Amino acid sequence: MLNKLQTIANRFEEINRMLALPEVLADRAQWTKLTKERAELEEIAAAYADYRRTEQEMNAAFAEAEKETGEMRELLSDEGYALKAALAEKETALKILLLPKDKNDERNCTIEIRAGAGGEEAALFAYRLYRMYQGFCERKRFKWEVVDLNETELGGMKEAIVNVEGKGAYKRLKYESGVHRVQRVPETESQGRIHTSTATVAVLPEADEVEVEIKDEDIRVDLFRSSGAGGQKVNKTETAIRITHFPTGIVVTCQDERSQLKNKEKAFRVLRTRLYDYYNGKANSKEAADRKNLVGTGDRSERIRTYNFPQSRITDHRIGLSVHSMEAFLSGDFDEMTDALARADTEARLTASDE
Fold first, then answer.
1. Tens digits of residue pLDDT in 104-114
2. What's the pLDDT tens digit per position in 174-197?
3. Sheet harboring 195-205: ordered strands across?
4. What is the CA radius of gyration of the chain?
5. What integer pLDDT is reported at residue 164 of this predicted model?
6. First vs last C-alpha separation in the chain
7. Which string of DSSP letters, residue by residue, matches 93-108?
8. C-alpha span between 249 and 221 (Å, rounded)
9. Alpha helices, DSSP H only, in the chain?
């Protein structure tokens, strides 16, 4: 590890020297490339320089302690051991910085929420999750853009597709993929029995246009009238869009906008995202199986969390963490859970890198 860190430090210093050269300053393309590389290495180089300083201070403290006697020797030894403990913490921090970054972390994302088992109660729970993620995005100042929302007459929803824009949106939401289970007494339950229902969530990183090629001959675009719970929600003209991708069988529908053009743009954006997930998922399936990530595969068939209303408890089964603040959690205040999942993921990857 230290050899790799020294190589990074040497490259960082080399780039700094190159950026001061007149010929580099005159070449905008090369200057931009080097500046980007420097930004990628800067945090690791700075952390390694701090590690080396601490190591030198520790060695100096122990060396001085050997020369002294009595109280001064004891003081210098204590200082050396304190620096040794700090050095161990900085070594762990460096290992984390060297872990491969998820290339999708800083991307926008698409959230897909669908009611599962449980009839209308599942539809009501799915809508609570929809509002939960909307509240979370408002807190983070992420842009929330509805692509499709299929509501029920009783205030629930069968399905929702939403695009989320903001730096690190995927990083903050990626651990939400999976089956969410709710345990509560429905309002229509006269005998007070607890019912169990589910909803599925999929969080997909958004793809750039250049990353996914969509050929005209591979798709069919259909126009139809929007549908909804009734009343003003129903659009009388054919502005809704359905895109079918023949090679994968993926179908995307967008009917949230009154403009046919806007619906088409949103639908193609979601199609690119799903295709990106489809092809990357196939390529990474073996790696995911080998790694056995502690916080799960993120597959939408995996039960990840239970929302127990009678006990006001939310339990994430991947890390065994329970929190007791149902209303705050469902309003979008679930950073504690997200942070814990991210830490567990990092610890699992650290363990795997040491094996």
1. 898 999 999 99
2. 999 999 999 998 866 667 788 899
3. 143-151, 157-165, 109-115, 195-205, 178-184, 303-308, 313-316, 321-323
4. 26
5. 96
6. 14
7. HHHHHHSPP-TTTTS-
8. 13
9. 2-19, 22-26, 28-67, 70-98, 119-140, 169-173, 260-291, 326-330, 335-354
